[in-house]
Amino acid sequence: METAPKKTATKPATKPATKKVAKKTTKQAQVGFEESLWDAANKLRGSVESAEYKHIVLSLIFLKFISDKFEVRQKAIIAEYGDEYIDMVDFYAMDNVFYLPEDARWSYIQANAKQGDIAVKIDTALHGVEKNNKSLAGALPDNYFSRLGLDASKLSALIDTINNIDTIANQNEKTEEDLVGRVYEYFLGKFAASEGKGGGEFYTPKSIVTLIADMIEPFEGKIYDPCCGSGGMFVQSLKFINSHNGNQKNVSIYGQEYTNTTYKLAKMNLAVRGISGNLGDIAGDTFFKDQHPDLKADYIMANPPFNQKQWRADNELVDDARWAGYPTPPTGNANYAWIMHMISKLSEHGTAGFVLANGSMSSNTSGEGDIRQKIIENDLVDCMIALPGQLFYTTQIPVCLWFISKDKKGNNEKGLLKRRDRQGETLFIDAREMGTMVNRTLKELTNDDIAKITQTYHIWRGEELTTETAKPESADKEQSENKEQSANKEQEYEDVAGYCKSATLADIKANDYVLTPGRYVGAADIADDGIPFETKMSELSQTLYSQMNQADELDNAIRKNLQALGYGEERDGAKRNDS
């Protein structure tokens, strides 16, 4: 993070602290907080189009987020060094925190929220933040609030709502919501139909991002996302590294985003976390304006737009180098163009994990089946996972995860982990029955679900931690990692009917090169309850006879009631009377 020079000083000796500043660790319940934000933003109706809501809210949340981090750091500086150092930029930069002038702090915005010129004050604050932090160049809106002509009282109400959000609670925990991206995705869903936007391409649900990161283990090297949306894949990659006591300096971030507003959002999302990334000079189409043409990435994590239509004209990109040796991806669906783009970007030992619509596993439309067959024959598919439905805010399209590996030999793979030779093998996992409903329409994978899937994959790969792994910071963590390593060593992979299957290339060929896990894992075994068939059949038969007798009794009772009302059954023109 770069900041304009202000006061600087040599770090003083730490003075005895008279008090400890503890970071808040109690996570505020945030399920449904998007709805509160929407209700507050919806009060702006009449003075701003609903499509602008997300930009208004996200800009304010961004300001709240960096201000909250600033205040936490400021209190820590006071406690550790004293009041005289609170305006020294270096003391904030060393902790990846933006230094904010007084009129750019959330407390100043909140204190002036009822003023008639609050829109101007917000624009001034955002301008001040960008001016003093070069890493945010071009990321923040310019005079945006003033130009919208917002009603001051309604804007004030929105500020009050955002003021109640704890933006930094549990920020170092793996389960922290990607706050900016989560709100963006929710707002996108509210007006996706009117804007004509496809669902799911701007923000990937946190549980899916966590699963991909845990599966491919991006410890070191170059991480790339060709359609990075709000940058959630990068954020989770670095959380994975930190949670496993790795070194964030051992990775470099590369990304690209087509939509200018989302490109800015990604820059904000990385900036607030002190992540330095290369997202290209401009927003641009990955197929036509590749910002990283010479990149060879060690890890690729992506959630491309689902079933993107008309992504190129018939005469465009026909002989593109990215699909050399393969049929050209069809114009009607970009799924295989994304796959081929990512394969072309992988390094010699690179690994990719990405989300696609389920149709990508079996489609034979316009030559897609031929491309998939070639990918399989080149032994690039390491693992396929079928996911449950309802994981996305804005689409119910069933999705799957692809894991591509350029090197299945195992012993030469990049990173801290040794793996077995997996040439000619592909792991299939059917996770469609996993996940928990978090509300009426949305499901998420639990931590246990993610752990089960990840462990299955890592045991199948024959994964074994080497002595190069960084020494854990605590005895508890070391003990935990030793237990996990021992467990993986003791366990050997086994196929589980209905859940996972290790298939050969011959198996896949016999299934017409279809990669749907359900074709391979089969049906789950039915547990034997130990009751002999004859005993069970006798009990079931007696139960059925009893129910049939009860049905006869009920039929007779109904007949009598109808007869009493004068509606007896007629036979041969005469009413039947059983009494």
TrEMBL record:
Region (Disordered) location: 1-23, 464-493
Enzyme Commission identifier(s): 2.1.1.72
Residues annotated as domain DNA methylase adenine-specific: 176-528
GO molecular function: methyltransferase activity
Biased composition (Basic and acidic residues): 464-491
Enzyme class name: transferase
Catalytic activities: a 2'-deoxyadenosine in DNA + S-adenosyl-L-methionine = an N(6)-methyl-2'-deoxyadenosine in DNA + S-adenosyl-L-homocysteine + H(+)
UniProt biased composition (Low complexity): 6-16
Domain of life: Bacteria
Keyword line: Methyltransferase, Restriction system, S-adenosyl-L-methionine, Transferase
SUPFAM superfamilies tied to this protein: S-adenosyl-L-methionine-dependent methyltransferases (SSF53335)
GO terms of biological process kind: methylation
InterPro entries per record: D12N6_MeTrfase_N, DNA_methylase_A-5, SAM-dependent_MTases_sf, T1MK-like_N_sf, Type-I_RE_MTase_Subunit
All residue ranges annotated as the N6 adenine-specific DNA methyltransferase N-terminal domain in the record: 34-162
Gene3D superfamilies: 1.20.1260.30, Vaccinia Virus protein VP39
Family: Belongs to the N(4)/N(6)-methyltransferase family.
Name of the molecule in the record: site-specific DNA-methyltransferase (adenine-specific)
Biological classification of the source: Bacteria, Pseudomonadati, Pseudomonadota, Gammaproteobacteria, Alteromonadales
